[in-house]
């Protein structure tokens, strides 16, 4: 397996509280939190869009 090259979110302000994203040549996307780098979520682009839409909706409901 190819080693993933992680990129920190531009919205992350603290070194220990970061969301990181990596892509693979086949187009899959991987998401992890810097506090627990061994745990990752893998998505295709449509799956990640769905996750982000659900998070945005939950945030707007709670606001």
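Sequence proposed for the structure above (63 residues):
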């Amino acid at each position: 397996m190819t080693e993933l090259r992680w990129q920190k979110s531009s919205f992350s302000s603290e070194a220990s509280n970061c969301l990181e994203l990596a892509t693979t040549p086949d187009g899959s996307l991987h998401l992890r939190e810097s506090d627990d780098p061994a745990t990752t979520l893998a998505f295709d682009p449509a799956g990640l869009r769905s996750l982000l839409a659900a998070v945005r909706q939950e945030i707007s409901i709670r606001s």
